[in-house]
User: Which sequence fits this backbone?
């Protein structure tokens, strides 16, 4: 997993709420046996029409909005547990998703893949949308070390929560599996009494 | 202070605590399938490590398999490749596979309980969010991502934050024609798709207690649709009776000893939940959904709510537009094109019996394309043994072979763009049953009645 420490970047706004993982990556694109390449089909049915032409009114097809942060409406990532959703966002180039509320499994999957979910208050989310609408070039700063997300040019700033264990993993690029493998003796002991 | 059922099982499975108070949870049973496992196996290969406890992992092919001609090679190249990869991986890593053609093959959440692999008090995971189904036996069962599939394969453990506990009680008597599917659709319509996020739910109350195991599974299955990590029901005599004698259940004296242990699995009277909800069974009508998330459900006699009353009018409007429906409209009498009876929510033998019972001696409407997809080979065999296939055939339904099928449209079983499908599955997301497909979730009885009438009817007026 890649490390995440701090990122300054422009953002892509997607105010739609309850975006489910079937939209992020439709099931028919889950037939790969590797983790790569899902970015091409990210938001497939919103991004392309039946003839595979980009739909001009979809935000990812609007050249005005670019960046490594996706700012999304509440309850982002609900539905299926497919980790392919996190892979697709990451593969497309996103490193952070900001929302006022995330579905549990998506949040866990994102953290396991170096994609940082940043949960902010509905009010702060609204301010972010406004700032981006006002100026597509506005830069967001995400500082994991200090758990702060800000828009320096607008004087906006907010703290965000992250589990201390997950924070260490993200900052250092560690996977859960490394830790679990290091305690297999404990696991074997547990099995004896289980 | 007493403990909740959830806490009892969770605490018994904590191996140790990692940094920051995160728990290392031991997993008793792990189910895998072709779609979310290949990258996990590849991870093990990359690290050159084996599956830690291969006997505790069970594989099946279900998500993208065809539902006809399963004896022939899978036509679609990518699906075939994925299923072959699963076979190859299972052989290499020593994992038991119930692949296509095996008498135990079927949807992962149907076969676990049916074979007695799922037992009270266990922790069960699978790379599929509807793993919550197994909670009906008094298990902690939940869906995980592929990285976690790899973790379980490598160590039989997961690193997890303990969720909060919620209890949802339903008391009273259901109206005739109202099934457990209606109960859960009703609950989700009340709590919303995010209402359970961060929680593990226990379903309780006299209505829940009175349900069969299969009906309980339908309820637990859809817990994820309100954002909950999982749902569970305390095991009781109904549970023990169901588990008894199944292939992989403890037998004889072992079974009696297990029942003794399982009988301890309930929430203590003074246990405290972080959140509680109470519902009355009498308030529940046959349900239908009108939008593009499972929380957008109404009683069949009700009208589609106004956008202004929703907490996000824009998303709400977009959803209605996709469905081709309007505020204030009623779905009663709405003409439907497709009927799908299947999925891990409603594809068990009881569901098929309910449908057969209703359609017996009737004929489906000409305008309807109807598909019945059993949850497993065993369900299929049982249905044939009971002659249900003959009843379906006479009524114009096709009984197909087991798999996830039109629940998620990974195989050929799709609903065309713009067409309405009344479906017994669990998700009505945009494009879930095929690009542009319009899904209306309902119970098997509502689906059967729709097939016969060609439009949505109130089954309460039919079954009394
Ligand atoms: S039937 Fe549908 S919900 Fe159930 S496991 Fe298959 S795809 Fe998932």
Assistant:
């Amino acid at each position: 997993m890649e490390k995440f420490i701090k990122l300054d970047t422009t953002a892509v706004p997607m105010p739609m709420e309850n975006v489910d993982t079937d939209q992020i990556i439709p099931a028919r694109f889950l037939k790969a046996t590797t983790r790569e390449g899902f970015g091409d089909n990210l938001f497939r049915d919103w991004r392309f029409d039946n003839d595979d032409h980009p739909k001009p009114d979809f935000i990812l097809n609007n050249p005005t909005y670019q960046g490594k942060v996706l700012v999304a409406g509440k309850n982002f990532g609900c539905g299926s547990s497919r980790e392919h959703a996190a892979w697709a966002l990451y593969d497309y180039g996103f490193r952070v998703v900001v929302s006022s509320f995330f579905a549990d499994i998506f949040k866990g999957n994102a953290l396991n893949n170096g994609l940082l979910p940043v949960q902010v208050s509905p009010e702060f989310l609204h301010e972010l949308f406004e700032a981006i609408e006002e100026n597509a070039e506005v830069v967001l700063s995400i500082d994991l070390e200090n758990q702060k997300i800000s828009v320096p040019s607008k004087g906006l700033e907010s703290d965000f929560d992250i589990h201390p264990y997950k924070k260490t993993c993200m900052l250092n690029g560690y996977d859960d599996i490394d830790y679990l493998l290091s305690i297999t003796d404990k696991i074997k002991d547990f099995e004896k009494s289980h | 202070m007493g403990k909740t059922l959830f806490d009892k099982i969770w605490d018994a499975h904590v191996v140790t605590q990692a940094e920051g108070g995160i728990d290392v949870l031991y997993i008793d049973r792990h189910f895998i399938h072709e779609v979310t496992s290949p990258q996990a196996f590849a991870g093990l290969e990359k690290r050159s490590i084996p599956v830690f406890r291969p006997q505790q992992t069970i594989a099946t092919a279900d998500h993208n398999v065809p539902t006809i001609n399963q004896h022939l090679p899978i036509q679609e190249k990518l699906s075939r490749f994925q299923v072959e990869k699963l076979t190859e991986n299972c052989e290499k890593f020593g994992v038991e596979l119930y692949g296509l053609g095996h008498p135990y093959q079927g949807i992962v959440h149907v076969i676990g309980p049916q074979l007695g692999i799922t037992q009270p008090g266990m922790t069960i995971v699978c790379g599929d969010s509807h793993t919550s189904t197994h909670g009906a036996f008094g298990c902690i069962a939940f869906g995980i991502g592929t990285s976690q599939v790899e973790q379980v394969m490598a160590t039989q453990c997961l690193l997890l934050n303990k969720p909060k506990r919620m209890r949802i009680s339903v008391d009273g008597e259901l109206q005739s024609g109202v099934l457990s599917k209606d109960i859960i659709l009703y609950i989700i319509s009340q709590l919303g798709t995010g209402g359970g996020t961060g929680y593990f739910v226990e379903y309780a109350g006299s209505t829940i207690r009175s349900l069969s195991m299969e009906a309980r599974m339908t309820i637990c299955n859809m817990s994820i649709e309100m954002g909950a990590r999982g749902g569970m029901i305390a095991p009781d005599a109904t549970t023990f009776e169901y588990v008894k004698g199944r292939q992989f259940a403890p037998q004889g004296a072992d079974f009696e000893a297990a029942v003794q242990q399982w009988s301890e699995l309930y929430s203590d009277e003074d246990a405290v939940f972080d959140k509680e909800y109470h519902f009355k069974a009498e308030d529940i009508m046959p349900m239908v959904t009108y939008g593009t998330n499972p929380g957008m459900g109404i009683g069949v006699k009700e009208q589609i709510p106004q956008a202004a009353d929703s907490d996000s009018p824009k998303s709400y409007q977009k959803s209605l537009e996709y469905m081709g429906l309007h505020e204030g409209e009623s779905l009663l009498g709405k003409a439907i094109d497709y009927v799908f009876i299947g999925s891990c929510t409603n594809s068990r033998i009881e569901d098929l019996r309910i449908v057969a019972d209703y359609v017996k001696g009737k004929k489906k409407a000409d305008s309807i394309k109807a598909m019945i997809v059993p949850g497993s080979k065993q369900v299929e065999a049982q249905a044939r043994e009971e002659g249900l296939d003959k009843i379906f055939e006479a009524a114009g339904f096709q009984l197909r072979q087991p798999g996830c099928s039109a629940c998620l449209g990974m195989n050929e079983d799709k609903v065309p763009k713009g067409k309405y499908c009344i479906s017994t599955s669990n998700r009505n997301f945009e494009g879930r049953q095929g690009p542009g497909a319009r899904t209306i979730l309902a119970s098997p009885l509502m689906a059967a009645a729709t097939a016969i009438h060609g439009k949505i009817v109130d089954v309460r007026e039919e079954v009394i």
